[in-house]
Specification:
α8 packs across α9, α9 runs parallel beside α10 and α11 runs parallel beside α13. This protein has one domain: TIM Barrel, CATH 3.20.20.70. With 341 residues, it is an alpha/beta fold. The chain contains 13 helices and 10 strands. The longest helix is centred in the middle third of the chain and has 21 residues. The strands form 2 sheets. An 8-stranded parallel sheet has the order 8-7-6-3-2-1-10-9. A two-stranded antiparallel sheet has the order 4-5. Helix content is 46%, strand content 14%. The structure holds 2-O-methyl-1,6-di-O-phosphono-D-mannitol (5MM). 2-O-methyl-1,6-di-O-phosphono-D-mannitol binds next to α12. The site of 2-O-methyl-1,6-di-O-phosphono-D-mannitol has 16 residues, from α12.
Length: 341
């Protein structure tokens, strides 16, 4: 495939395909495995991810690329084939998480700053050789108005780091996925999510412009505009869609080829229904698709539960969710289609 950044970015978000975010760090994958009673060993992590990467229908028809963790991009399948080669053989693009996680922001209790810029140029060169053609960096913006969170300093510092990361990626021939996640964990309402997301995206695109990042060779990975989980409010897909698109029209340049949402803790079907509603009110100037972690994997993890005998069931669950999200990325999903699972 073409090595041009613009072509890679377009392939990531085009054709109703989306990304599988399988870049859980060691701590996060352990938490996911604890839920299904599976020990988090290197072999179990390999077996689980190999199961998804070998899901032929999902990987060839619905998934454009996979975000990998450092361990996984270097790992071989049980038969000795590099996992990266399995992904490429399905026609999907290998990607890599390059941030070192969100750490406490000194002087701003409750805020975080994502680290990982030191040595990033060298790490990107290594990841390119290993086959990565896109990367991901996640900034985490929490909302807690009782503590003045997020501060303008947190939004500014995270936007600056995302821009420095994006510029380094493009220098290395790697498409940067820029992920400024406004968390949906708080007690805030949908309008507060909209306001904080707007401040975050405005600052982000200021910084990307200042860093001379070529927007055509980037993909945005944002949250949807939605009420916080502790608010007790449930938004309809139409409400989420209307406010999310209003936000993007006010902040995201049309030079950006596509927007691939994170699921952020939404239920599987909720994340699909919201993505579908967003596409139904199109056309939009960007492709709008998925880059889900939990909302693509939760059902597959449960069906698999660490047993080789459940491999086909795990693959069927993963394929179903990938299919549903593919339809949602085209605005063609219907709730009744879930029954076909
Ligand atoms: C798959 O989860 C990713 C890694 O998280 P940690 O670094 O905390 O282990 C995460 O960055 C993910 O790619 C995005 O947040 C989107 O995932 P969700 O589950 O929100 O769709």
């Amino acid at each position: 495939m073409s090595e041009r950044l613009e072509d890679i970015a377009a392939a990531i978000v085009g054709g109703g395909k989306g990304l599988l975010a399988a870049d859980e760090s060691s701590g996060t994958i352990k938490k996911r495995f604890d839920v299904i009673g599976v020990e988090s060993t290197a072999d179990n992590r390999r077996d689980y991810r190999e199961m998804m990467f070998r899901s032929k229908e999902a990987m060839t028809k619905y998934i454009s690329g996979v975000i990998l963790y450092d361990e996984t991009i270097r790992q071989k399948a049980a038969d000795g084939t590099p996992l990266v080669d399995i992904i490429k053989a399905a026609g999907a693009i290998p990607g890599i998480k390059v941030d070192a996680g969100a750490k406490a922001l000194a002087g701003f209790a409750g805020d975080t700053i994502t680290e990982g810029l030191d040595g990033l140029r060298e790490r990107l060169a290594d990841y390119y050789k290993l086959g990565a053609r896109f990367a991901k960096w996640r900034a985490v913006i929490d909302i807690d108005s009782t503590k003045g969170v997020p501060s303008a300093t947190s939004i500014g510092s995270n936007a600056h780091a995302l821009a420095r990361y994006a510029a380094l990626c493009q220098e290395a021939g790697i498409v940067p996925i820029v992920e400024p996640e406004v968390l949906m964990d708080g007690a805030h309402d949908i309008d507060t999510c909209y306001a904080v997301s707007k401040a975050t995206l405005l600052k982000l695109y200021d910084e990307l412009y200042a860093a001379r990042v070529v927007l055509e060779g980037t993909v945005l990975k944002p949250n949807m505009v939605i009420s916080g989980k502790k608010s007790g409010k449930t938004d309809s897909p139409e409400q989420v869609a209307e406010k999310t698109i209003k936000l993007f029209r006010e902040t995201v340049p049309v030079a950006v080829p596509g927007i691939a949402f994170l699921s952020g803790g939404q239920d599987d079907e909720e994340a699909t229904a919201n993505l579908n509603a967003i596409n139904v009110i199109g056309p939009h100037p960007w492709k709008l698709t998925f880059s889900y972690g939990r909302a693509l994997q939760a059902a597959a993890q449960k069906a698999w539960s660490g047993k080789a005998s459940n491999l086909a069931a795990g693959q069927a669950a993963f394929t179903h969710r990938a299919h549903m999200n593919h339809l949602a990325a085209l605005g063609k999903w219907k709730p009744a289609l879930e029954q076909a699972a």
